[in-house]
Design a protein that fits this description.
This protein is of the alpha/beta class. The protein has one domain: 3-Layer(aba) Sandwich (Rossmann fold), CATH 3.40.50.1820. It is built from eight helices and nine strands. It has a nine-stranded mixed beta sheet, with helices on both faces. Strand 6, helix 5 and strand 7 form a beta-alpha-beta unit. Helix 4 crosses helix 5. The longest helix is centred in the middle third of the chain and has 26 residues. It starts with a strand and ends with a helix. About 2% of the residues have low confidence.
Length: 248
């Protein structure tokens, strides 16, 4: 892991960009932890992925990351292949173009989404695990407990395959491939599931079926009225209490 840039933000958060091979990422930490003070306890870590693998610099993700770091967490996000700072392959462009075409034509999107989102998920999770290895080697984190926040499809696959994930907060919006719907039956970590009741692109019935499939004994569903991007800010604060219970 190579840190390329460091900024002290006006809310007292230190924001550091890093590269890990071809993977670019950002780490947000409270200022004392960034200084690696010997008196500071290791920080719990939250991996934060945006729905549908949008770039890590997307304003809503950055706002959540800074708020969460201010509560005493290290928060990390990376750009998935073909997103953010990373180049898109010809296959990426064809898949995105086909998705746009099908949506404009009003065609059923399940098959197109499956062929597009499935490879995104299976390609992203090994990179998240590589980033996790490097992040847990940092002295301010030092093998601390790990949570996940964000895109449900990646979160399910990561929680099912990575034993270091201790709790997960998932956004119901965003297509979840069939493989991850099956994997949900093996996910037992504490879960907070956020659902936008009027999400125009994600049928609530599927989200409710997915929530029912999770195997954990502690799982909580928060449903709010509004469309895909309308999750209320108070859910970020409630999520903080969820992570406090399981990571601190």
């Amino acid at each position: 892991m190579h840190f390329t840039c460091e900024n002290l933000l006006d809310d007292g958060i230190v924001e550091r960009d890093f590269t890990l091979g071809a993977i670019p990422g950002t780490l947000w930490t409270p200022a004392p932890a960034a200084a690696a003070s010997s008196a500071a306890a290791p920080l719990p870590l939250i991996l934060m992925a945006h729905n549908n693998a949008l770039p890590r610099r997307e304003p809503r993700l950055v706002a959540r990351a800074r708020h969460t770091a201010a509560q005493g967490y290290a928060v990390a996000s990376i750009d998935a292949a073909g997103c953010g700072e990373r180049p898109r392959s010809a296959a990426d462009e064809r898949a995105r173009a086909e998705l746009r075409r099908a949506a404009r034509a009003g065609e059923p999107l399940d098959e197109v989404l499956e062929s597009f989102v499935g490879p995104l998920v299976t390609g992203a999770v090994p990179e998240w695990r590589t980033a996790l290895d490097a992040l847990l080697a940092l002295p301010e984190i030092a093998d601390g407990p790990v949570g996940y926040s964000g895109w449900a499809a990646v979160g399910i696959h990561l929680a099912a395959t990575e034993p270091r994930i201790a709790a997960a907060g998932l956004f119901a919006g965003g297509y979840v491939p069939l493989a991850q719907r099956e994997e949900a039956r093996t996910v037992t970590v504490p879960l907070l599931f956020l659902l936008q009741w009027d999400d125009e692109g994600n049928p609530r019935e599927r989200a409710l079926e997915l929530f029912d499939a999770f195997a954990g004994k502690e799982k909580t569903l928060h449903a709010n009225t509004g469309g895909h991007t309308g999750t209320p800010w108070f859910e970020v604060e409630d999520s903080g209490r969820f992570y406090d219970r399981h990571l601190k």
